[in-house]
């Protein structure tokens, strides 16, 4: 389809982008912020891959009978971006777990409250996680 | 061997990148420190080599994998990237080899080798950002350095480091993703990811709306990374709570390399297509820079934690750097680019000296009051803080003065007298918070029972070396200004 | 879960196929969807599956912690090694053309093979390490 509704992939992209950013900003729970970040990054994958696909095109095969190729480069780029996203998510979860050890909560407002009321409580070493 | 030297652009990034898994394999803290130091020195040697070659022969292009650009990824060393490489590796060479004592004091013993591995990855990422000529490769290195930085900050001794690292991670990843969105739009419109090729093709693009959107996304994305006011919220906590070695290294290099990325995009990709006239980017940068310079300095005056004080000072100094983009002539850009180096050594010196103070003070808490009597307890450290503080203010004879001189000349040339007034006003406010630190260090008596014990020699050598550089680059400006001027001329001359 | 005989028997039958599928995805990346990252995740999923059914300690005996950490670093070093091999053989960094003295296409094939092997090793080790660290938190000895 063509025209305004032919660009439906961009609508989905924008919706995911804005939804992800909203979750990241509006939610105080650290895990929910991470989920918002993931949704936001997913929209970017869609932004790259959707325009690379040509209607009626195949994978890039060098043989007779295959004339129109979809662009393989965005797939490679997004593979890299997905790996970066996974690494970020893993790091975020690890830090969230350590925050829970140190503060007992993962709600951002409670953490800030605890920092305000016990400013020197952390002059001692951090809670050491079990060696795992 | 000449054949190895011609691969210098690749080795610049590969040496730190390969050192990190080696450090993880060997697991010993001593080996980790030795490898990180060796890699820092080697990076400096390679960066100086590349700068010399570029100065005599022009830009160097290195095709990774022997796939020629624009199909392959290209490492491109020109006047601007050579300057950046030297600035980053110079700081690295003066930080890593001297940080052994403070790292073992602040980080748990079984994690010291991990800190050095993260440091090597961060160094590789920053050097890669400066040297690559491919837009997506830049994102990869950006995220390598950023992820390593989040880990470095989270290794801080206090629990507040964790939340600081988490918030920096959220904002930093949003920034990097915005950058990727911008690159996506540019790729959609030009079909290429090579920066040189993109600049050429951009001039032929007719529908400019996606390109302007790309400009906006890249500005905000990189703005988050370089702590452009008002996107600086992550910086004070991140600098204040990270381990001393990490805050020294990050404060001196991370935001500067992001500024380099912005400069490269603005002047070498977007400017040839005359995009600045369609969006009020210059006015925006002027306004935000002046806001940063004045308000961040004001906040620093009232700040109680000494590391956060200097972190807000960094936000103000980054305002000076972005001011050059707003004024947009050769002199102001020379000042901006020179400040990438000058502020790097100045802030690096201050945080390195504060690391010495943290080592010798009980509990490691770093309020401004805890600096009382520093002049008697740690005379060399206090003297270093004074000199570096003078460089922050911009007293003649220091590197900071050189920067402000060129910024003021550039502003006068452009007829922006209010900018000149803002520079002078923020320098005066900087004098206020530097005087606060000096007054407490020299004019307050030390707390009872404080011994006179200077920082260990290994740390002092590195920190005072950075202090000496902040004076050296104020007096002998052939590299700092000469290199910056060449880079500025390259940037402004990129228009057809 | 290891007391349930159905799960135990089913796991022992399915796990080799998971590993085999991981290997298949690893080496067919140039012909179909696949490559190092996906294969690493599938291989790690097989070990995680084993750990879920037979317990974390059993998985740790199968693939010890030290080995996992060493594999993380080893994969990156293999990747860098391929790049440096290209350097030493006379090409640029990560040059695959020179990896075979006679046939540049075969050189490309070799380069991609080893690079993806490095990626697969690192990714599976990282995923497994993440599982060990997160799953090991609930158990206080």
The CATH topology of chain A:
Helix Hairpins
Separation of the first and last Cα atoms of chain A: 54 Å
Query: How many H/I helices of chain A?
Result: 4
- Sheet with most strands of chain A: none
Number of helices of chain B: 21
Question: Strand tally of chain B, please?
Answer: 2
* Low-pLDDT regions of chain B: none
Largest sheet of chain B: 2 strands, antiparallel
CATH level-1 class of chain A: Mainly Alpha
**Secondary-structure arrangement, i.e. CATH architecture of chain A:** Orthogonal Bundle
Throw out a few tags for this protein.
heterotrimer; A: 132 residues; mainly alpha; Helix Hairpins; B: 496 residues; two-stranded antiparallel sheet; 21 helices; 76% helix
What do these coordinates show?
The complex is a heterotrimer of chains A (about 130), B (about 500) and C (about 140). Chain A contains 4 helices and no strands. By secondary structure, chain A is mainly alpha-helical. The longest helix of chain A is centred in the middle third of the chain and has 31 residues, at about 75-105. With about 500 residues, chain B is an all-alpha fold. Chain B has a domain at about 285-495. In chain B, helix 14 packs parallel to helix 18 (about 400-415) and helix 15 (about 330-360) packs antiparallel against helix 17 (about 380-395). The longest helix of chain B is centred in the middle third of the chain and has 31 residues, at about 160-190. Chain B is globular. The model of chain B has no long low-confidence stretch (mean pLDDT about 90). Chain C starts with a helix and ends in a 6-residue tail after the last helix. The interface of A and B includes residues 77, 88, 111, 122 and 126 of A.
Layout of SSEs?
The complex is a heterotrimer of chains A (132), B (496) and C (141).
Chain A lengths: L7 H19 L3 H20 L23 H31 L4 H10 L15
Helix pairs in contact in A: 1-2, 2-3
Chain B lengths: L1 H4 L2 H19 L2 H29 L2 E4 L10 E4 L1 H17 L4 H7 L5 H20 L3 H20 L5 H31 L4 H8 L6 H18 L8 H7 L2 H27 L10 H22 L3 H22 L2 H31 L13 H4 L1 H15 L5 H15 L3 H27 L13 H19 L4 H13 L4
Antiparallel strand pairs in B: 1-2
Helix pairs in contact in B: 2-3, 2-6, 3-4, 3-6, 4-6, 4-12, 4-15, 4-21, 5-15, 6-7, 6-12, 7-8, 7-12, 8-10, 8-11, 9-12, 10-12, 11-12, 11-14, 12-14, 12-15, 13-14, 13-19, 14-15, 14-18, 14-19, 15-17, 15-18, 15-20, 15-21, 17-19, 17-20, 18-19, 18-20
Chain C lengths: L4 H23 L8 H19 L1 H7 L2 H24 L15 H32 L6
Helix pairs in contact in C: 1-2, 2-3, 2-5, 4-5
């Amino acid at each position: 389809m063509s025209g305004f509704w032919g660009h439906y992939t961009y609508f989905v992209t924008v919706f995911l982008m804005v939804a992800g950013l909203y979750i990241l900003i509006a939610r105080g729970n650290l895990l929910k912020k991470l989920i918002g970040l993931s949704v936001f990054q997913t929209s970017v994958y869609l932004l790259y891959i959707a325009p690379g696909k040509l209607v009626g095109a195949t994978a890039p095969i060098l043989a007779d009978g295959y004339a129109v190729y979809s662009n393989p480069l965005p797939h490679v780029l997004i593979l890299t971006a997905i790996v970066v996203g996974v690494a970020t998510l893993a790091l975020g979860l690890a830090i969230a777990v350590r925050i829970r050890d140190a503060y007992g909560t993962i709600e951002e407002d409670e953490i800030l409250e605890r920092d305000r009321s016990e400013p020197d409580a952390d002059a001692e070493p951090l809670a050491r996680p079990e060696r795992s | 061997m000449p054949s190895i030297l011609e691969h210098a652009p690749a080795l610049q990034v590969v040496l730190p990148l390969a050192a990190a898994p080696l450090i993880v394999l060997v697991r010993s803290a001593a080996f980790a420190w030795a490898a990180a130091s060796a890699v820092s020195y080697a990076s400096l040697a390679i960066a100086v080599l590349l700068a010399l070659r570029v100065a005599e022969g022009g830009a160097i292009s290195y095709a990774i994998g022997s796939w020629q650009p624009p199909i392959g990824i290209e490492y491109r060393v020109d006047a601007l990237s050579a300057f950046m490489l030297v600035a980053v590796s110079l700081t690295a060479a003066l930080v890593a080899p001297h940080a052994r004592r403070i790292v073992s004091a602040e980080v748990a013993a079984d994690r010291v080798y991990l800190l050095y591995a993260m440091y090597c990855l961060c160094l590789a990422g920053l050097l890669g950002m400066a040297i690559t000529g491919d837009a997506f490769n830049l994102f990869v290195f950006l995220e390598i350095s950023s992820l390593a930085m989040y880990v470095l900050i989270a290794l801080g001794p206090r629990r507040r480091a964790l939340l600081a690292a988490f918030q920096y991670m959220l904002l930093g990843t949003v920034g990097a993703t915005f950058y990727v969105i911008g690159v996506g739009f540019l790729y959609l419109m030009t079909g290429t990811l090579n920066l040189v090729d993109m600049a050429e093709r951009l001039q032929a693009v007719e529908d400019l709306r996606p390109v302007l959107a790309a400009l906006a996304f890249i500005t905000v994305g990189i703005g988050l990374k370089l702590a452009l006011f008002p996107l600086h919220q992550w910086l004070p906590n991140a600098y204040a709570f990270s381990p001393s070695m990490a805050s020294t290294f990050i404060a001196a290099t991370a935001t500067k390399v992001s500024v380099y990325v912005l400069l490269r995009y603005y002047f070498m990709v977007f400017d040839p297509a005359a995009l600045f006239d369609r969006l009020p980017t210059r006015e925006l940068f002027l306004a935000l820079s002046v806001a940063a310079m004045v308000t961040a300095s004001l906040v620093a005056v009232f700040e109680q934690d000494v590391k956060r004080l200097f972190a807000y000072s960094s936000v103000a100094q980054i305002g000076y750097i972005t001011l050059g983009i707003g004024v947009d002539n050769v002199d102001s850009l020379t000042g901006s680019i020179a400040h990438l180096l000058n502020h790097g050594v100045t802030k690096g010196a201050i945080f390195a000296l504060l690391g010495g103070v943290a080592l010798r003070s009980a509990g490691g808490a770093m309020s401004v009051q805890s600096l009382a009597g520093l002049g008697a307890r740690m005379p060399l450290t206090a003297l270093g803080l004074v000199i570096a503080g003078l460089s922050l203010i911009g007293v003649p004879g220091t590197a900071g003065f050189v920067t402000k001189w060129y910024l003021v000349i550039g502003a006068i040339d452009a007829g922006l007298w209010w900018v000149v007034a803002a520079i002078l006003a923020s320098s005066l406010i900087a004098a206020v918070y530097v005087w606060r630190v000096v007054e407490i260090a020299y004019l307050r008596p030390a707390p009872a029972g404080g011994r006179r014990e200077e920082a260990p020699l290994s740390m002092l050598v590195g920190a005072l070396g950075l202090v000496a550089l902040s004076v050296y680059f104020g007096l002998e400006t052939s590299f700092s200004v000469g290199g910056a001027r060449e880079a500025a001329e390259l940037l402004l001359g990129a228009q057809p | 879960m290891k007391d349930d005989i159905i799960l135990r028997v089913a796991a022992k039958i399915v796990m080799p196929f998971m590993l085999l599928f991981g290997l298949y995805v690893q080496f067919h990346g140039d012909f179909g969807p696949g490559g190092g990252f996906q294969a690493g995740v599938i291989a790690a999923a097989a070990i995680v599956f084993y750990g879920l059914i037979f317990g974390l300690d059993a998985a740790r005996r199968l693939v010890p912690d030290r080995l996992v950490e060493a594999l993380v670093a080893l994969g990156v070093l293999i990747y860098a090694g391929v790049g440096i091999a290209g350097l030493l053989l006379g090409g640029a960094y990560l040059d695959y053309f020179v990896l075979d003295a006679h046939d540049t296409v075969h050189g490309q094939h070799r380069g991609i093979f080893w690079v993806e092997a490095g990626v697969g090793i690192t990714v599976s080790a990282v995923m497994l390490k993440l599982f060990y660290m997160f799953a090991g938190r609930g158990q206080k000895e």
